Amino acid sequence: MSCTILVVDDHKAINEIITLYLGLMGDYNILTANSGNEAINIFVEEANVDLVISDFNMPDGTGADLYNFVKTHSPEIPFIIQSAEPLEFIDDLKKFTEQENEFYIQKPFTYEQFETAVMKVLSKDSTEKKYVKIMIPTLRNHPKVGVDTYVKLADDKFVKLRHAEDEFDEQSLRVFDKRGIKFFYIKQADVQAFLSNCQKNLLDQLSSPDLSADEMSKIRFDTYENLMSAIQYLGVDENILKQADQFTKAITKSIPKKSELVGLINKMRSGESYLSRLSLLTGNIALAIAQKISWIEQHNYEKLLTASIFMDLYWLKDQGGQDDTSLSEITYFDSAELINYTPSIQELILVHAQRGAELFAELRADGEIFNLIGDHHERPNKRGFPKHVDCSQISSIAAVLIMAHEFSHRLIMCPKMSLSKFTNIKSNLIKEFCVGNYRPACQGFITTFK
């Protein structure tokens, strides 16, 4: 019987990331809760919980409340707490980690740190073979997997279903679907090859002259998500940079028209992956604005798009793949929401753009992209971060990315959009950004969305 793990965090996105991590580590039965009290109710109803992974700071029952309940009723159950605060600063957890089945992870943490914690408290060999789930819809989009594919017969028993050179056809997928098989497996060691094959397939599709606007939008988003997944699980290397370069060249050859852009906006305003949607919208809106500015050249288009892909590299790479919308709600240093976080989290929010630029610089020496990534959270009237520069100090190219970023963010944060709301968002943005070095970007924005 598979291990049942209860994951508890008041941020849905963190729960999703931890669930993805656990999916990479093995075939666990995963339960999720958004508060300590909700987790206690699940714990009471579910008698076979084998591990609890909980955030500490949560409304409606903290991680300490949940920990005390679990240890009172079932002290043998392993418990992992994750928090941004150092353990020694948390008075409610002074005696935590005294037992071998307890582990504390301080945010931000990497996948490797998370895996070590889970394997330690479960007393499992972290070198055992691991498999990653691949959903049937993914195989429909990418029938040429390019790696061996497996089905699971029992715990720790996997049987090869397809060889790397085999292709999944629609008829066989329907048969599997009817039999109740919802996913297959690939070896974790093959994840990089699988993502690379998916990316190649998507890039080939992007070059097709017969795509409709809806098909183009879908492929663009799938390509973005594939790149984000590769960065999150594998880090950034020359192979990822090469894929990003191929993607930017393909996209900049087919900058969306206004009707396509509106369709993309409608599609991207809802969904699960905030960072992927923000990146996709920011990049495409920046391209559309730049196209209306006569002096911006083709190579600038590619730099704008590359910056939009890697602008949140710090969250994706060094923060355990965080895709936390609540953290990303902060686009101004004087935002009221910022005070809801601890000083350490506030600092991470305010420096993440610069840290992301530094991470990118370790991979590629490109001063223009470095500046674009580092400046993407700057705003007019010195309300941005981390530099708090005014409208006369920002470059005109960066202004295009910044305006596209803020517009995309506001659209995503208002998923139930009416024409009046859209007009209001647009008008407020123009009023705020039509100053100093933002003026060319603002004029391009007005022309694009007139």
Primary descriptors:
9 strands, 3 domains, 10% strand, two-stranded antiparallel ribbon, 53% helix, Rossmann fold, Hypothetical protein af1432, 450 residues, alpha/beta, single chain
Order of strands across the main sheet: 2-1-3-4-5
In helices, the fraction of residues equals 40-55%
Catalogue the unreliable spans: 124-129
Structural class: alpha/beta
Q: Could you characterize what this model shows?
A:
The chain is of the alpha/beta class and 450 residues long. The protein folds into three domains: 4-122, Response regulator (Rossmann fold, 3-Layer(aba) Sandwich), CATH 3.40.50; 131-190, no CATH class; 207-448, Hypothetical protein af1432. It contains 19 helices and nine strands. The strands form three sheets. Strands 2-1-3-4-5 form a five-stranded parallel sheet, sandwiched between helices. A two-stranded antiparallel ribbon has the order 6-9. Strand 7 (149-154) and strand 8 form a beta hairpin. The radius of gyration is 23 Å and the shape is globular. It starts with a strand and ends with a helix.
Helix-strand blueprint:
Blueprint: E1 4-8, H1 12-25, E2 29-33, H2 36-45, E3 51-55, H3 63-73, E4 79-83, E5 102-106, H4 111-122, E6 131-135, H5 136-141, E7 149-154, E8 157-162, H6 170-178, E9 183-187, H7 191-206, H8 213-234, H9 238-252, H10 258-268, H11 274-291, H12 298-310, H13 313-318, H14 325-328, H15 343-363, H16 367-375, H17 396-412, H18 419-433, H19 439-448
Parallel strand pairs: 1-2, 1-3, 3-4, 4-5
Antiparallel strand pairs: 6-9, 7-8
Helix pairs in contact: 2-3, 7-8, 7-9, 8-9, 8-10, 8-11, 9-12, 10-11, 11-12, 11-17, 11-19, 12-16, 12-17, 15-16, 17-18, 17-19
